[in-house]
Amino acid sequence: MKTYFIEEPFFDADEPYFSVENKLPGLWVCTPHLPAGLEEEEINNLLTSFLSNFLSQKDLEDFAFWYYTPMALAFTDKFRPKLTIYDCMDELSAFKFAPKELKILEKKLIERADIIFTGGHSLYEAKKHLHANIHPFPSSIEKEHFQKARTIKTHPVDQQQIVGPKIGFYGVIDERFDIELIEAIATEKPDWQIVLIGPVVKIDPATLPKNKNIHYLGQKSYAELPAYLSGWDVALIPFMLNESTRFISPTKTPEYLAAGVPVVSSAIRDVVKPYGVKNFVHIANYNAEFIEAISIELGQKDKSEWLAKVDAFLADNSWDNTCQNMQELMLKTLNSKQNISIAS
Predict the structure, then answer these.
(1) Which domains does the chain have, with CATH numbers?
(2) d(CA 132, CA 271)
(3) For residue 143, what are the contacts with CB-CB under 8 A and spacing of at least 6?
(4) Cβ-count burial of 334 within 10 angstroms (0-12 exposed, 13-18 middle, 19+ buried)?
(5) Per-residue b/e over 94-128, b at no fewer than 16 CB within 10 Å?
(6) What DSSP element (H or E) covers 306?
(7) What is the DSSP secondary structure assignment for residue 87, as one 8-state letter?
(8) How far is CA 59 from the centre of its chain?
(9) 155 contacts 140 by C-beta, under 8 angstroms
(10) CA triplet 280, 126, 88: central angle to 5 degrees?
């Protein structure tokens, strides 16, 4: 099987071109490079042309289109793959600066899709009435990768210099991130050190709190995350409760847990159930509840019973299992389509 991942365009070229890089056996990353200042219609026409030329050069007996965003339908509408998959990871229309045409394109993609996956159970509940073949797939993990955090002894240089209890978060710092909560914790507990890892996106960096005990370490690679986690006493999921977080299922939840780090989270629905109801994660609704839950974890000396339960719960959670289950559903869908065609 060959997989071609089409990146969003980079507007960095004097003349448009389409680069293709072989990343792994059977996996290529394709990146459109376009001039800046193009109109939306010009962009989509170029992307359609790139893709058409690219596919015409491939010996593809059958192919499937896997959509992560409905916006891609604007330049793939003319193609008729044997199988169309919509991997609906978030309610993208609720995000800041979401394109106005996103809802229209999603409606069209849902009508065209042969099978839909959702990135969590709450999103599944919100979408299940829209399609007959839709399935929830909450976040999975690469357990072996994050479990390294339990045994790493040498910490990253920029974190070594931070002395005191470390309360950490990694991920995109954007409109979902509760800046006021972070500032309140840092102000109330000046001896706690809040470590924030990730890029600042779609918000003004000037609005971020500047307390001395808040440390912005920037974006780190996936490979580096266990080393940072190994030095944390508590991990945070400090998201506001609004339209952009209503259906999210943070992948960091099981990753934090696999690393053996206690977690305090706002009441995100897909964190509350199952992690909160099983007492794997503290759920906090107010600043004071976050501080109280963090204090409880900082005072815990023996986490072995909690960790054993967490490990048992995560035992079957893996991207390999998710991939296998998705493939089985896709093959079933494809066989069903073929049987209908033969019958017709």
Answers:
(1) 3-140+320-343 (3.40.50.2000), 143-314 (3.40.50.2000)
(2) 26
(3) 258, 314, 317, 318
(4) middle
(5) bbeeebeebeebbeebbeebbbbbbbbbbbbeebe
(6) helix 304-314
(7) E
(8) 32
(9) no
(10) 80
Q: Is 37 left (phi over 0), alpha (psi -120 to 50) or beta?
A: left
Whole-number Å distance between alpha carbons of 315 and 15: 50
How far apart CA 228 and CA 195 sit, in angstroms, is 9
Contact criterion met (CB below 8 Å) for 172 and 199: yes
How much is the pTM? 0.88
Residues (pLDDT < 70) of the chain are 60-61, 94-98, 340-344
What confidence tens digit (pLDDT) does each residue in 71-85 have? 999 999 999 899 999
- Per the CB < 8 A criterion, the answer to whether 173 and 198 are in contact is yes
Specify the pLDDT at position 91: 79
pLDDT tens sequence across 207-254:
999 999 999 999 999 999 999 999 999 999 999 998 888 899 999 999
- Helix, strand and coil content of the chain, in percent to the nearest 5, comes to 45, 20, 40
Short-list 237, 203, 238, 236, CA closest to 95:
203
